[in-house]
Structure formats: structure tokens, C-alpha cells
Write a structure and sequence with these properties.
There is one protein chain. This protein is α+β, with helices and mostly antiparallel strands and 387 residues long. The protein has two domains: 232 residues, no CATH class; 130 residues. Helices cover 58% and strands 10% of the residues. A six-stranded antiparallel beta sheet has the order 3-4-5-6-8-7, with helices on one face. It has a two-stranded antiparallel ribbon with strand order 1-2. A hairpin with a 4-residue loop joins strand 5 and strand 6. The longest helix has 40 residues. It starts with a helix and ends with a strand. The C terminus is likely disordered. This is Response regulator receiver protein.
Length: 387
């Protein structure tokens, strides 16, 4: 028992590790979608972005390695986009500056364009030097703009930067440079809110990608608009997306559990009548048979709400020999009990944790029923909660 418990705990820990890796991949996929949308808004190609990853068939260590590489590529892509945005704003600011604008050193010296024609002490025109230094200073401030800053916020920053270029003296320029920093910070705060909403929408989109509930198509279209920056994620839309994503996750979990049960029991020699997919429906039930069982089956029912699975050996044909019937009933029940214990180990390896709630030992009377019976459920051999 102790060895089996350790084995189940190790399998459960592996399942938790895998689940964490899957959620990390979903987060990275969502960030990639949001960055792709940001690139598209700026008419840039996203060649330096990683492609989203499908988690099917991947091991936890492979998923973690991919996430680490994706983080590097995403960080570099964000730096590239931020640099491009800063350069675009700076180019517009200086291109739009009027010819008579005063050029500032930002160290306390001012010169008009007429003064700039005069060489400085080194014999070189001072205007271009001051212009370059001003450009460098503004670029350093604008390099802090978030990569997904929208055009309206960039326009506000650009206006503030133009005021710095047009300042009549260094003190005014310094004051206006502070305004640029404030507008950059405000733009970044709004960008962060939009990004968080877009990442949340992109994550929900992955979870409901194949959901077929009424309204799913309309919800997917709205969430795609959020990711693209065309629509805000208001409270109503967020609540609807969260609810459908939770439903999709629960349905996927039930399908996975049912598939795992099917695979494990099939490996133990039990055939499933009707398919275990019926267990994902409310009050679903199936019968398990074996090639060497001619008069018995295992009736399996599931309660999706409670997360409980119940299984009982039943007799599928009556017998006139009471003694032989009792012997065979006990033998089949013992056989099923052993198989069930092995099934729990197999489910643990598949990441399905089980807690045994109730056991009726072999030897009690086995009920007789048709495998197509819709009669009320019989006495339970075992009950198991799946988490």
C-alpha cells in the first residue's frame, strides 16, 4: 500500500508539473498573439516572433524549454518594436520642426539658426552638434515607450516632444522634457491595461477555440477584436469569456478523464460497451466486459458534478445453481477489485488523481440486470472521486 501511495504521489506531482508547463505555454501563446497584433498595427513583419506552440504530445521539460526560448524572442521583439516606435516619433518631431526653431543643447546654452552658422571653438558648426544631443536625449526618453502604445498616445507624446524642440531656453526645455516623461508614463500605463486585457482575451481564445456552445462564434470574434486593439475588454465581455473558458476547460478535463479510464481499463483486458465518452454526459453509464466473462459485467456510472465514479460488478444472466453462482460472483468481484487497484495506478500515471471513498468487499450478492437496463442504480462496489 505504501509503495502504491508513493507511486501515486509521484505521478500526481508529475501531473501538476505538466499542468503548470501547459499553463505557461498558454500564457506565452497569448503574448505572442498580442505582439503579432501590435506588429500588424505598425505595418511591420513579425519574422522575429516565435510561432505559438501546440502542447499536444509534448513533455513538460520540452514545454519549459520552449517557454524559455519564447521569452527571449519576445523580449527581443519588444525591444525592436519599442526602438522603432521611438525612432518614428523622433523622426516626425524633427521633420515637423519649423526652420526658425531654436536648437537647444539642454545644458544651458541656446542658439538661433543664425548663430548656428558660426563655428564653435573647435571650428565646427555648433547647431548640428546640439541638434544631435537633443535628439539623443529625446530618444533616450522615448525608448521607454511600451511596444504596444497606440497612435493616439504617441501623438500626445509627439506633441510634448515638439514643444521641447521649440523651447526658447534650456530651463523651458527641461520643464517640457519632464512633460514628455509624464506622457510616456501615462501612455505606458494605458498600454499595460490594454495589453493585460488583450493577453487575457488571447488566452480565453485558446481555451474556447473548438467550443461549440451557442454564442461561441460571436464571442471569439469579439475577443479577436480585443487582441487586435479594436475593442475594449469590458466587465460583461470578460465575464462571458471567463465563463465559457471555464466550461471548455471542464469539458476537456472530463473528456481526458474518460479517455484515460478507457485506455487504462482496455489495457487490463476490459472492453467498453458504448464508449467512455458517454461518461462525460450527466448520468452517463457504460458496461465493461471481458472475453472470459460470460455471465458478468461491470457497470460504471459517473457523476460529473460531484466528480465521482462508481463501479459495480453485475450479473448479466440468471443462474439456477446458487452455490456456483455465489462462487462465480465472488471470483468476478475479486478479479474486478484487483483490476480496479491496478487501474488507479494507471490513472495516476496519466495524471488523474483518485481518492477511494467507499469499498464493499467481495462476497455480497451481485445484482442481476440487463446490460441495456435503465433501472435505478444498484449497490455500489466502489466509489471514487476524481480531481
Amino acid at each position: 500500500m505504501e509503495k502504491a501511495a508513493r507511486r501515486q504521489e509521484a505521478a500526481a506531482e508529475a501531473a501538476r508539473t505538466y499542468e503548470q508547463a501547459v499553463h505557461t505555454v498558454l500564457d506565452r501563446n497569448a503574448r505572442i498573439s498580442v505582439m503579432q497584433a501590435a506588429y500588424a498595427r505598425n505595418a511591420m513583419t513579425a519574422d522575429d516572433l516565435p510561432a505559438p506552440l501546440a502542447v499536444d504530445g509534448q513533455q513538460a521539460e520540452d514545454l519549459r524549454a520552449w517557454c524559455a526560448r519564447a521569452d527571449e524572442l519576445l523580449a527581443q521583439a519588444e525591444r525592436n518594436l519599442t526602438r522603432w516606435i521611438a525612432e518614428t516619433v523622433i523622426h516626425r518631431v524633427f521633420a515637423d520642426a519649423p526652420p526658425e526653431a531654436v536648437r537647444l543643447d539642454l545644458t544651458g546654452t541656446t542658439r538661433t539658426r543664425r548663430d548656428a552658422a558660426e563655428p564653435d571653438s573647435a571650428g565646427e558648426p555648433a547647431e548640428e552638434d546640439r541638434r544631435a544631443r537633443l535628439r539623443t536625449t529625446l530618444t533616450r526618453v522615448l525608448d521607454r515607450l511600451a511596444p504596444d502604445t497606440v497612435e493616439d498616445d504617441r501623438a500626445l507624446v509627439r506633441l510634448a516632444a515638439a514643444e521641447v524642440v521649440a523651447a526658447a531656453d534650456a530651463a523651458t526645455a527641461d520643464s517640457r522634457l519632464t512633460d514628455v516623461r509624464i506622457r510616456v508614463r501615462q501612455a505606458n500605463e494605458r498600454a499595460r491595461e490594454r495589453r493585460d486585457a488583450a493577453v487575457h482575451a488571447a488566452r480565453c481564445l485558446q481555451l474556447i477555440a473548438h467550443h461549440d456552445d451557442p454564442g461561441a462564434d460571436r464571442l471569439r470574434a469579439a475577443l479577436n477584436d480585443v487582441v487586435a486593439g479594436r475593442l475594449p475588454l469590458d466587465d460583461t465581455l470578460r465575464a462571458t469569456a471567463d465563463r465559457m473558458a471555464a466550461d471548455a476547460q471542464a469539458a476537456a478535463a472530463r473528456r481526458y478523464v474518460a479517455h484515460s479510464i478507457d485506455q487504462v481499463l482496455s489495457g487490463l483486458g476490459y472492453q467498453v460497451d458504448g464508449g467512455f465518452e458517454t461518461l462525460t454526459a450527466e448520468s452517463g453509464e457504460v458496461y465493461l466486459t471481458r472475453g472470459d466473462w460470460s455471465e458478468h459485467a461491470v457497470k460504471v456510472r459517473v457523476d460529473p458534478e460531484a466528480g465521482e465514479l462508481r463501479a459495480a460488478v453485475v450479473r448479466t444472466s440468471p443462474s439456477d445453481e446458487a452455490e456456483e453462482r455465489r462462487r462465480l460472483d465472488t471470483e468476478r468481484a475479486e478479479q474486478w477489485c484487483a483490476a480496479f487497484a491496478a487501474a488507479r495506478d494507471g490513472l495516476a500515471e496519466a495524471g488523474v488523481r483518485t481518492d477511494l471513498q467507499w469499498v464493499i468487499p467481495p462476497g455480497d450478492q451481485v445484482p442481476v440486470e440487463s446490460r441495456r437496463s435503465t433501472a435505478p442504480r444498484q449497490r455500489t462496489r466502489r466509489r471514487e472521486r476524481e480531481r
